[in-house]
Design brief:
Helix content is about 30%, strand content about 30%. The chain has six helices and 16 strands. A seven-stranded mixed beta sheet has the order 3-4-5-6-7-8-9, sandwiched between helices. Strands 12-16-14 form a three-stranded antiparallel beta sheet, covered by helices on one side. Helix 1 packs antiparallel against helix 2 and helix 5 packs parallel to helix 6. The model has no long low-confidence stretch (mean pLDDT about 95).
Amino acid sequence: MSWEKELGVAKKAAIEAGKEIMKVYNSEKINVEYKDDRSPLTEADRQANQVIVDMLSGEFPDYAILSEEEKDNRERRQNDYCFVVDPLDGTKEFIKRNGQFTVNIALAYKGKSVMGVIYVPVTEELYWAAEGNGAFLTLHGKTERIHVSDRRTDIRVVMSSSHGCAEMDNLIQKNNLVNQVKMGSSLKGCIIAKGEAEIYYRFNPTMEWDTAAMQCIVEEAGAIFNQMDDSEMRYNREDCRNGKGFYIINCAENKMKW
């Protein structure tokens, strides 16, 4: 399947959500609240979520939606089709006003991420992919197909700006990874998808909405995406927490020891 209609609606929803995000981003003050897990929440998260959910549910009323900013309806588990949404991925980066935040919209079909859209509101970059159809970047009206690099030496590792850990420090030291790029949100996957870095290892837990869109895009760009135990990442699960961690590599030869 091409998922053409789903892609079209998801792209439009991501861009419209991005406009709402930028209104708050460019305002004089960003008001921040904190959820029960101490993660930050802003008006931009809420507004972006409303735009996306309204558009997706309006066009696909029979599909389930799993969003970071919506109360989870477990009935989604009975649906083969589930949109997985992070209306503002990288809220910490948003609050810092460093531009490294994204809008993530994916479609999971029978547990597999088959379509992914990632929009970068500050730069207006739109990354998108559908299973079997390649990965693409649209910017300023021009669309180009993107691919991972074929680099095997002096490989570049992309790392989180806000979520360091001892395991990552050990991996860097053990593999002598001196070429490092620090970045927030799902942009880390986008950088690998377009060939500007080769590996991304994530030991800290994430959630389904953090990875679903990114996974489809990097895989369609030629990357390998697995959980840390080398198993496949699935979606629309009972437990939305990605507890095993994951890695993205441009080729099998660049799998790291840790």
